[in-house]
Amino acid sequence: MKTLLPTSTAGSLPKPAWLAEPETLWSPWKLQGNELIDGKQDALRIALQEQQQAGVDIVSDGEQTRQHFVTTFIEHLSGVDFENRKTVRIRDRYDASVPTIVGPIARQKPVFIEDAKFLRQQTKQPIKWALPGPMTMIDTLYDDHYHSRKQLAWEFAKVLNQEAKELEAAGVDIIQFDEPAFNVFFDEVNDWGIACLERAIEGLKCETAVHICYGYGIKANTDWKKTLGNEWRQYEEVFPKLQQSNIDIISLECHNSRVPIELLALIRGKKVMVGAIDVASDTIETPQQVADTLRQALEFVDADKLYPCTNCGMAPLSREVARDKLNALSAGAAIVRQELANAN
Ligand SMILES: [Zn+2]
């Protein structure tokens, strides 16, 4: 990466109102058939352009072609029955009606490869593509086949690896796995969660990232955060083992969260996507606030390994708020970039 402090987002951006109901998760599509296919591509082009106009360095599809960051991938797999739904507790936080695993998991066809090729055609900038992580996937399903969280996660890791290899071949520069579940199930993360993640990235030559956050700014998550106390030390449980793992980049939440910044010392040596934009609030950060967060992170992360980012996806925000927050991210990164240049 040539630019110092290259900016990016955690992944999702709001969808246009003509494509899906705004400011809603799992929002149903408003188009059908070929109109939906075209509409998704048009939305992807807009999401890319908005990132470019805000000066984002590492761009993404804004997750415009998927309904949800976990469900859409699972919908493309065999072994999952979407009619047969059970209510489970997601990340120990809220109940949701989820599909059932009824047989062996397999990926019969590519999921996002055509979308990734389409994005690759639109830009020469580095692109990042997000996939759900194995542990977060198993937490969004009822398992009536393997009856083992570890084995089901391992099976997902294998199909994620197939998808990731094709994303790499399509020209994706960074493949990111979203693992909010890593902030909840610490013993399992250390026992087998990180091993599953390493299985998912096996043989990849492109860069790899894991995104671990406190979730979208939805009520279930903000209520949960209120129970976490004054210091959020969840990262402390999983960082030591992640530091030893083959993952290149760790994407985490900083601004407005109660994560003690010194926990970043536990992943010394890794590249870090530092969340400098709060996605749970409509208040637009000032460039100075973004710069402050980045300066704090620089005490624990070498400048050439720091990637300014958002805390999480921005799908539930309004387009205007998301746009303003992207601009703030760029402006804040520019301040610190200048300071680093002056210091040298
Ligand atoms: Zn997130």
Please describe what this structure looks like.
The chain has 344 residues and is of the alpha/beta class. It has one domain: Alpha-Beta Barrel (TIM Barrel), CATH 3.20.20. 38% of the residues lie in helices and 17% in strands. It has ten helices and nine strands. Strands 3-5-6-7-8-9 form a six-stranded parallel sheet. Strand 8 (271-275), helix 9 and strand 9 form a beta-alpha-beta unit. The longest helix has 25 residues, at 319-343. The chain is globular and about 60 Å long. The protein starts with 32 loop residues before the first helix and ends with a helix. The structure holds zinc ion. Zinc ion (ZN) binds at residues 10, 180, 211, 213, 312-313.
**Count of DSSP-assigned helices:** 10
Percent of residues in beta strands = 15-25%
Structure summary, number of beta strands: 9
Helix content: 25-40%
- Topology as H/E string? HHEEHEHEHEHEHHEEHEH
CATH architecture: Alpha-Beta Barrel
Bound molecules: zinc ion
Please tell me the total number of domains. Answer: 1
**CATH fold descriptor:** TIM Barrel
Q: List low-pLDDT spans.
A: none
Q: What composes the largest sheet?
A: 6 strands, parallel
What oligomeric arrangement do these chains adopt? single chain
Report, as a whole number of angstroms, the end-to-end distance.
19 Å
The class by helix and strand makeup works out as alpha/beta
Work out the radius of gyration.
19 Å
Strand order of the largest sheet: 3-5-6-7-8-9
State mean pLDDT (0 to 100 scale).
95
The best one-word shape is globular
Question: Which CATH class?
Answer: Alpha Beta
Cofactor: Zn(2+)
Pfam family, one: Meth_synt_2
GO biological process, one term: methylation
Protein name: Methionine synthase
